[in-house]
């Protein structure tokens, strides 16, 4: 069983991993297009979390994780509890490109018809939201910074995330 991570799964998979591969999903973009009312925000002050948003000419680089043998059922249950908490994500299988060839992996993509979908927000608006929101798993900015740092460590370039990380640092700095 393979799972595609493009956000917090990259740095916090929360399941036993047997192998990791850098992978690319064609036709999808990593985007802060989901309002978070549980993990990184609240219903009163939603944060933003990453999702895969369909975009015909785009691609998203992330990590494909092989789940350790024997942990597949437990991992699937845990992923569903974590990712499907508000049903804004759709569970699907994506074709990924890796250095060792194509593969299929489980992934969670945004449902553009869900009320939490907010695609098309400008980067400055995203930064303002992320700088202030806090949810059950902590400040929204920590989620952004951890994701941006781990992408950089893997050599994955994401200019929008890099810009957001720097802008949120400036917004969060003591005055």
Number of H- or I-type helical stretches: 5
Tell me the radius of gyration: 16 Å
**Quick one: overall form?**
globular
Low-pLDDT sequence parts: none
The CATH superfamily label reads Gamma-glutamyl cyclotransferase-like
CATH topology heading: Hypothetical upf0131 protein ytfp
* SSE ordering: EHEEHEEHEEHH
Distance between the termini: 48 Å
Count of extended strands: 7
Strand order of the largest sheet: 1-3-2-4-5
Q: What is the highest CATH level, the class?
A: Alpha Beta
The largest sheet, given as strand count, sense and whether it forms a barrel, is: 5 strands, antiparallel
In total, the number of domains comes to: 1
CATH architecture call: Roll
| Class derived from helix and strand content | alpha+beta
Organism: Pseudogemmobacter lacusdianii
Keywords: Lyase
Pfam families: ChaC
EC number: 4.3.2.7
Q: Can you walk through the features of this model?
A:
- Strand 4 and strand 5 (101-110) form a beta hairpin.
- The longest helix has 15 residues, at 140-154.
- By secondary structure, the chain is of the alpha+beta class.
- The protein has a single domain (2-172), classed as Roll (Hypothetical upf0131 protein ytfp), CATH 3.10.490.10.
- It has helices spanning 8-11, 72-83, 123-132, 140-154, 159-172; strands at residues 2-5, 17-36, 47-67, 89-98, 101-110, 134-135, 138-139.
- 31% of the residues lie in helices and 39% in strands.
- The protein is built from five helices and seven strands, in the order βαββαββαββαα.
- A five-stranded antiparallel beta sheet has the order 1-3-2-4-5, sandwiched between helices. It has a two-stranded antiparallel sheet with strand order 6-7.
- The protein is globular, with a radius of gyration of 16 Å.
């Amino acid at each position: 069983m393979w799972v595609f991570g493009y956000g917090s799964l990259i740095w916090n998979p929360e399941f036993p991993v047997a192998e990791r591969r850098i992978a690319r999903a064609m036709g999808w973009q990593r985007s802060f297009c989901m309002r978070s009312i549980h993990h990184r925000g609240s219903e009163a002050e939603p944060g933003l979390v990453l999702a895969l948003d369909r975009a015909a000419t785009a691609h998203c680089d992330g990590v494909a994780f092989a789940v350790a043998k024997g942990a597949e059922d437990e991992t699937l249950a845990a992923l569903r509890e974590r990712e499907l908490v508000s049903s804004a994500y759709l569970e699907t299988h994506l074709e990924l490109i890796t250095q060792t060839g194509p593969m299929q992996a489980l992934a969670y993509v945004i449902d553009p018809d869900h009320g939490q979908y907010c695609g098309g927000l400008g980067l400055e608006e995203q930064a303002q939201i992320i700088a202030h929101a806090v949810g059950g798993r902590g400040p929204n900015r920590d989620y952004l910074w951890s994701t941006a740092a781990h992408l950089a460590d893997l050599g994955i370039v994401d200019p929008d995330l890099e810009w957001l990380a720097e802008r949120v640092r400036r917004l969060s700095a003591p005055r």
